[in-house]
Amino acid sequence: MNANADPAEVQKFSDLAHRWWDPASEFKPLHEINPLRLDWIDDQAMLAGKDVLDVGCGGGILSEGMAARGARVTGIDLSEKALGVARLHLFESGLKVDYHHASAEAFADAHPARFDVVTCMEMLEHVPDPGSTVAACTRLVKPGGMVFFSTLNRNPKSYLFAVIGAEYVLKLLPRGTHDYAKFIKPSELSRHAREAGLESRELIGMSYNPFSQAYSLGRNTDVNYLMSAVRVR
């Protein structure tokens, strides 16, 4: 396995792969946030007609969403089981996505500057070296192309909400989904982006209201946040 991967993390999502497209399963939060993040990406990148790579695509929820918006989508992941579920779901959706078993780093070596848009959502907090993944995403996108990330901030509030609240109290996610030590501060992600040759365009937070049970985008980046950036070199 590629050095920038935690076998336990890959196995964790492989074990749940058969439930990826069940909106009432452990992946319910992904189904609920997908329209928000999809609109946010599409508003900035205008997906229709673009060559798009979804890094860490899992079962293909975002990949299919972008394909439905008219993008030519490629998805890569290190979980064969998740990719199998993603490919199988294409028969149900009728959409077209080209899935590959590969790491971001290996795919960047094989396909440098190949894509107009690269997305890497809910993944950076699951790899040993997020800076390596950011650099690979940058190499994969064409100069002037856009890269999108989403991850979790690292602070006491994010531990309370994303780990204790989401996994133990509200039970939105299975226990052990996240390792707080791997959470990434916006300043750290911004540094990785700059070092890789990206220029940040927008940093926006995503919040969950337990009373309305709804997600929204806004200024609060204390817990979940998203970043868009452009390759400038």
Question: How would you characterize this protein structure?
Answer:
By secondary structure, the chain is α/β, with parallel strands linked by helices. The chain has one domain (about 5-150, about 185-230): Rossmann fold, CATH 3.40.50. The protein has helices spanning about 5-15, 30-45, 60-70, 80-95, 105-110, 130-140, 155-170, 185-195, and strands at about 50-55, 70-75, 95-100, 115-120, 140-150, 200-210, 215-220, 225-230. Helix 2 packs parallel to helix 3, helix 5 runs parallel beside helix 6 (about 130-140) and helix 6 crosses helix 8 (about 185-195). The longest helix is centred in the first third of the chain and has 18 residues, at about 30-45. The radius of gyration is 16 Å and the shape is globular. One of its GO terms (molecular function) is 3-demethylubiquinol 3-O-methyltransferase activity. It catalyses: a 3-demethylubiquinol + S-adenosyl-L-methionine = a ubiquinol + S-adenosyl-L-homocysteine + H(+); a 3-(all-trans-polyprenyl)benzene-1,2-diol + S-adenosyl-L-methionine = a 2-methoxy-6-(all-trans-polyprenyl)phenol + S-adenosyl-L-homocysteine + H(+). Belongs to the methyltransferase superfamily. UbiG/COQ3 family.
